[in-house]
């Protein structure tokens, strides 16, 4: 995950990562639910809209697991840029891994078919700069896949206004991730720049030559995870969410804690 930087990298550093079988289990790691269904729909859009043949992909922020379906990953050259050296070293599927800041690192124009920015923009202080870098690096007709939390959801509000130690506690004791908070492991400090809000992101994209071709808000995978691991706690959270939803206009659901967006360069 690309985390905020307190220094501005004048140069980026290539990191050697060990050769290993790429982890492509992002889909399989999701419990059945809206998040998994949306990622399947994203895969369908990518299969349909990306060119046939060899692909050039830029992943802005590189963890240990790809969100691409295996058949796309197998015909792609993947370049990862991340500010966290541990995250870069954890990556096992990139052809090139660069230690750098996605907000300032610039590739040549029209280099990539696809930019992936997954669970990253919520950690950045300059989301607008990162998005413009992504756009410039795309070939015409290329796409940006963004996965991010919804700041206006129940989980988004809790994340924004609770201390980081609480996020680590939640990951360790509710999600069961014993490595949470250790170097190179989520959760990372969250900033929620205004462009993380979906309506703002859509308006920014439209103003800068990007067309939103896929948009889906969905129930955060944390909810089905909680229902499996902590059913009593999950029942309390679900009850609170239903009460909040009753007072919200339209069909808003505070459990819609995440979204997928695909932007296409005009």
Textual characterization of the structure:
The chain is of the alpha/beta class and 266 residues long. It has a domain at 13-150 and 189-220 and 257-265: 3-Layer(aba) Sandwich (Rossmann fold). Helices cover 35% and strands 21% of the residues. It contains ten helices and eight strands. It has helices at 26-29, 34-49, 70-73, 85-90, 127-137, 154-161, 164-173, 198-207, 222-229, 231-247, and strands at residues 13-14, 55-60, 76-82, 96-99, 112-118, 138-149, 210-218, 258-265. The protein has an eight-stranded mixed beta sheet, with helices on both faces. α9 crosses α10.
Features:
single chain; 266 residues; alpha/beta; Rossmann fold; 21% strand; disordered N terminus
Task: Characterize this entry briefly.
With 266 residues, this protein is an alpha/beta fold.
**CATH class membership of the domain at 13-150 and 189-220 and 257-265:** Alpha Beta
Query: What is the CATH topology descriptor of the domain at 13-150 and 189-220 and 257-265?
Result: Rossmann fold
Percentage beta strand: 15-25%
Contiguous runs where pLDDT drops below 50 for at least 5 residues: 1-11, 15-23
CATH superfamily of the domain at 13-150 and 189-220 and 257-265: Vaccinia Virus protein VP39
Largest sheet data: 8 strands, mixed
Give, in order, the helices and strands: EHHEHEHEEHEHHHEHHE
Terminus-to-terminus distance: 28 Å
Rg from alpha-carbon coordinates: 18 Å
Overall pLDDT metric = 87
- Sheet with the most strands: spatial strand order: 1-4-3-2-5-6-8-7
Structural class of the helices, strands and pairings?
Answer: alpha/beta
- Overall shape: it is globular
Put simply, the count of helices is 10
Q: What is the percent of helical residues? A: 25-40%
Q: Can you name the CATH architecture of the domain at 13-150 and 189-220 and 257-265?
A: 3-Layer(aba) Sandwich
Q: State the total count of DSSP E strands.
A: 8
């Amino acid at each position: 995950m690309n985390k905020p930087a307190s220094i501005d990298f004048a140069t980026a550093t290539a990191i050697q990562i060990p050769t290993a079988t790429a982890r492509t289990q992002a889909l399989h790691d999701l419990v059945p639910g809206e998040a998994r269904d949306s990622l399947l729909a994203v895969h369908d859009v990518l299969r349909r809209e990306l060119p046939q043949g060899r692909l050039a992909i830029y992943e802005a922020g590189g963890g240990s697991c790809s969100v691409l379906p295996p058949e796309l990953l197998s015909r792609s050259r993947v370049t990862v840029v991340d500010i966290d050296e541990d995250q870069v070293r954890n990556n096992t599927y990139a052809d090139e891994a660069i230690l750098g800041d996605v907000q300032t690192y610039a590739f040549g124009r029209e280099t990539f078919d696809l930019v992936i920015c997954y669970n990253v923009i919520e950690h950045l202080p300059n989301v607008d700069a990162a998005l413009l870098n992504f756009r410039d690096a795309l070939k015409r007709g290329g796409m940006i896949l963004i996965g991010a939390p919804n700041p206006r959801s129940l989980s988004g509000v809790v994340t924004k206004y609770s201390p980081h130690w609480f996020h680590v506690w939640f990951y360790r004791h509710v999600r069961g991730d014993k490595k949470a908070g250790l170097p190179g492991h989520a959760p990372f400090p969250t900033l929620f720049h205004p462009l993380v809000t979906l309506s703002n992101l859509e308006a920014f994209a439209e103003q800068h030559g990007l067309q939103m071709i896929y948009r889906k808000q969905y129930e955060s995978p944390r909810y089905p995870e909680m229902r499996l691991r902590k059913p009593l706690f999950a029942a309390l959270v679900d009850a609170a969410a239903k009460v909040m939803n009753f007072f919200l206009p339209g069909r808003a659901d505070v459990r819609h804690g995440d979204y997928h967006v695909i932007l296409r360069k005009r």
